Amino acid sequence: MKKTDIGGQAVIEGVMMRGHNSVATAVRKGDEIIIKKEYVKPLTKRNKFFSLPFIRGTFALFDSLIVGIKSLTYSAELFEEKDKENISKFYLFLQKVFGDKLEDILMYFSVVISLILSIIIFFIGPTYVADYIKLFTKNTVVINFVEGLLRVAIFILYLVLISQMKDIKRIFEYHGAEHKAIHCLEHEEELTVENARKYTTLHPRCGTNFLFIVMIVSIIIFSFLKWPTFYIRILSRIFLLPVVAGISYEIIKLAGRSNNKIIRVFVYPGLLLQKLTTREPDDSQLEVAIASLKSVLEDEGGQEFESI
Asked: What residue intervals traverse the membrane (predicted)?
């Protein structure tokens, strides 16, 4: 079996796949599969510094957020009814000021807002609550560990809640289709619905796995920190986020290439969490995922595989 760097994400009624040279977003609308392809290299492939181990994780995460939001926005727009009369005056004003750059500006704004909300919910919140543990113990290792457990609990609760939403369940089915298509490619089988159908919806390189590993790595790293004032704690966690992301990224890449038992144990909880973020897809959804993957493979030129 061979491993590939190609990955993707589910979007509204579709799947985005990303290779070394291009991004393809396939969306089913009625009986038609619409494919949008962009020739964009990942940030980590554009600059040697961005590709350095433990450095590349931060840039890969930011790059993935940008591409992901862009693909998600595109899929949503396909199902929107354009009504020029109902476009707000503020939006028209922004169009006049920024012109063709408006969409990119809004996309980057969305990425920044997403990062800020994530930091508030998953870092500032648990740190604030864990502060009350000092009433029971002064042991900083214990306090940091409790903070980490709170972060994991919030993350799992968030996944449980959104997995109950009808529209999200549909996206999770496409998420499962994405993983099955990748498995089919890695097993060097012809990319057909029949071949992809038999594979699991779980994959070690999944974003769910990455986020869970971020939680675990942050527990380990933060456990070495003392417990000073609240604001210094928050700043220390924000400044250490690139370190956490860098280490987590290397682990997830290793998990995708290696069958090492220690690595497998480390990523196993993340695989279990994918039972929340993936669902068994139907054949029409597998067809979309395969169409997206085939579109990306056209531009890989034999680069898609890495030996284990």
From this structure: 105-129, 141-161, 206-225, 231-252
